[in-house]
Structures are given as structure tokens and as C-alpha cells.
Amino acid sequence: MKPTKEKKRQALVSKAEDRSLKAPQSVIHIKHRITLRQYKYWILSLDAFREAYKQSLEPDPNGFYQFPIDRLTEYLGYEPVKDELKVDFEALRKEPIIINFLHKDGKPAQRGMGFISEWKVTSKTIYFRLPSFVEEVMRGLDEPQNIFQLLNWDIFNHFSGKYEAVIYKLCRDYVGVRRTPYMTIDDFREYMGVPADEYAEFTRLGQRVIYGPCKAINDSPVSDIMVEPVIDRKGRKSVGISFLVEPKNQPLLPFIDTLQEPHPAFRLAKVPILPETQKKYLALRSEEEIALCIGRANEYGGKQEKDGKPPNYGALYHAAIKEGWHTAVGDRKAAEGAALARKKAEAAAKRQAAAAEKAQAEKGLAETEAVLGRFKSLPESVQAESIAAFLATDPSAKGAYKRKGFDSPLFLFPFAHYLKGQGQAA
Length: 426
Hints:
Mean pLDDT: 77
CATH architecture of the largest domain: Orthogonal Bundle
Number of strands: 10
Helix content: 55-70%
Shape: rod-shaped
CATH class of the largest domain: Mainly Alpha
Radius of gyration: 42 Å
CATH topology of the largest domain: Arc Repressor Mutant, subunit A
Largest sheet: 3 strands, antiparallel
Distance between the termini: 90 Å
Strand content: 5-15%
Oligomer: single chain
């Protein structure tokens, strides 16, 4: 039976869901004066940092985190021009982010930084450093009190206009509550990176920055939300804005996850491990050793779960492979093998001893029957004398002999032993 169109669409949705990037609202919801392409580079840099942090990967000696240009090409769908790449990362370094917050004494303060603090581009790799504030937010992303959302990269990357991409990102964060927070028009301008002298008339601002981008989101064949701007007016003046958000099913998802399948050595991993990280691990350990390390880390994580401590599997895998937990597994398996071998040897020895004991008993029984056979061939007077002599040496056998005679084992076997000792029936 051929799969239906709906099943095919669900399969595409399932694959696309794998390409989701976590990004905290406190970081993403800031001024967007950078270009859309630069914004995409920054989100990918945040994702690269987050993956490194989750897997306990340290930066290089100069404090740089990194991701390969091949990965950037894979996400964007085209190979970026190196000169443009350098210009864009320099713009990320220079463009300011101003954060308003309360100081420890309760008084308002500000912090200023760039989107990144330093960068370096080589033929194959992008190196970057994030400002301390951005790192703090990214490190706390898994904490329950921090709000985060899943950004579907294939959908986000589909948008070619900056304003539609930023509004999509904003609204996608609040799809669960169905409405974005209220912003004054001045705050919205600043958030979207629109100077006060650009689209000064609200009619132009609405056309270029609000209604046009919303229509592009709603009409997009890959968008998973519908958005509607709600304008707050005082008299004839527009003073504020928020967006209503409704989820929708995409009729088409053209961007399918092309990230390579994990190496077989990592098939038991409970969290994704980046391809470049897999290569590093494979350079450090053999496939068999890595599989043992991951198995041991899974066991340890399972114990943590039972104790009510959510395990960080990325960090566990990093520690297990780096520290060589496979040796512990190997030692345990060797010990289990040795114990099994001992049990088998002991069982074989018991069987051998039992067989020897049985053979000895059968031999003794045969000898006893031969002795008694020869004894019964003697004259009756000689038999009577031998019996009397034996009973004189073993009074305890008298009762047994009186009750059953030669049919009593308590008399028969001691008497046969006596005869052999006397040599009378030899």
C-alpha cells in the first residue's frame, strides 16, 4: 500500500522537527539592526555554543568556540562567500546590544556588548567568542525558570526578508500563549532595527515592516503559524502593537534534514552528538570502545534518573569517552567471564567427583559380592566359625544379623570388609 499524502507530509514534518534550535527569548528579543544573514549566523553561533556546553566541550586555549563552514553551508543551503562572511562577523562584533537591568543595589544599570566579542575565519572553520552576558543566558537555558522556545530552522531559513523572519521568530516564541507582549511603537521600531527617521509615517511603517511581513508569513507554504497584528490607537495615532498567533499545519516542507546519520558507534546515544564531535571521539577511541563508553554512561544516567537527578547525557558521553569508561566495562565483563568460567569448572569438578564416587561405589559393591560369593562356597562349619568370630569383633552387628541375616546391609557390608581383611575369602 502506497503512503498517503498526509503520511508523507507527517514524515516531512517529523524530519523537519529534528532541525530545531533552542534560543532563549532574553537573548533573541533584542534590537535587530543587523541584517537577516548576520542574524542567521548569530543564531547558528548560539546553537554551536549551546551544543558545546551541553557536551562539556571546552573552548580552545584562546577561548574560542567553533563550528565548521561545511555545517554553515549545510544549514543555509549554499556556500557563503568568505569575504562576505568576514564582513558579517565583523558587523556582529561591532553592532551593540544594550541590556537594561537592575544592579545588586536595586538601582537600574546598563550593560553594553556586541553580538559576539571576537571572531576568526579560516578556510574550513569559524571561530567565535560570545559576550559574558550572552554566555550566562545560554548556560542557564535548561533551568526551569528560563523561558525558551524551539526555532524550526528550515522554516526560519525559508524567509528571505528580515522583517518577516524577525516577526516569525517573535511570534513563534509565543505560539503557546497565542499573543506576543505589548510594545509601544517606538519600542517596536527599536526592536525591528528601524531608525526613527525611516518610514516616519506609520502608514509606511505598517506597510513595509508590519502588514507586508505578516502576509508573507501567513502565505508561506512552509510557515507553521498564522499571525495578525493588533494596533493600539489613541485617537488617530497608533501608539502600540502586539501580535495574535495561531498554529497551522504546513502543506509543504521543502527543506528536509540532510544532516548525516550518526556513526554506528553512537547508535545507543540518548542525545544527538554533532558530526564533528563524533569525528573527534572516533580519533580518540575505537568504535567498540566508544560503544562501551556510551553504554556505561547510559547506565550511570539511568541511576541518576532513578535518584531524581536529570542526567546531562552529552556531558556524560564526553566524560566517558575522554576518561575511558570502556575499561571499567571491559574489566567488569572480564570479571563476569572469569566468574562464569569458575562456576563451570566447579560444576564440572562436582560432576567428575560424583562420577568417581559412583564408580568407586560400584567397584566396592562388585568386590563385596565376589567376597560373599566365595564365602558361601566354603563349608558351613567354616562359615559359622567366621560369622561368630566377626560378631565377637563387632557386637553392634549381632542384632541386624539375628533379624535379617545376610539380607541386612548393617551386617553384610561390615562382614564382607572383615572377610577381606582376614583374607578368608580371598
